[in-house]
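Hey all, quick one. A colleague (J.T.) asked me to put the phosphoenolpyruvate job into the tracker so the inputs and the structure tokens live in one place instead of scattered across chat threads. No bug as far as I know, just bookkeeping. Sequence used:
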Amino acid sequence: MRKNIVAGNWKMNNTLQETKQLLNELMRQTKNTEAEVMVAPTFVNLESATQVLTGSGIEVIAQNMHFASHGAYTGEVSAAMLKEIAVNTVILGHSERRAYFNETDELLAKKVDAALANNLRVIFCFGEELSDRKANNEEPVVASQIANALFHLEASAWKSIVLAYEPVWAIGTGETATPNQAQDMHQFIRKTIENKYNSDVANSVSILYGGSVKPANAKEIFSKPDVDGGLIGGASLKAEDFFAIVNAF
Ligand code: PEP
């Protein structure tokens, strides 16, 4: 059956010293969790983070990567570079990458292919803008984001895909989708995948919710049948809050 996952996206936060300190606090609090726990520090701290977390059960994941294997792409990082430092999962398509770095579904399809070709697991993010939701357009928007970036994949490739539904209006805003809004969308996403592939693929894929998840709302959101965990931004920067969320399972 599908896995429960709680992943912390640290974004461009935490120096090396701060990274080590937070990871040590996290390790003290990680005991017998029901969910897979992951953290995504910035690129320059990934290798140190994997060393600190060796044997802890917490996975270090990357926030992004380039689709090319190597070459003249100043400032970028390839899948092979991540694999070499024992990073096995990458977040792709975060709304901040889409908004500030013009990442399109077409570009993301190439990144997904490169990640899978290098045996990386992908946490693929998508979600509607506030204007889409106000226009009752959130389902077609989400369906097209998934279809454009992922529906060229064979069914067998989906074992390496985790989905993260993150309504843009809820990210870093303190405004959370209600548990029912999250459940409705996750159910729609699963149905969309079933229609394209089959119920095995749809029922095996973990679908995370992201957008202002906090200790106070995590339990109710995670209790919904189609919500398999969370992608956590702000609250993942405080060990106590992050583990309260992890322990909401
Ligand atoms: C995110 O950046 O993926 C996110 C969900 O952020 P926050 O939890 O701060 O809304």
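Adding what we noticed when we looked at it: The chain has a mean pLDDT of 96. The radius of gyration is 17 Å.
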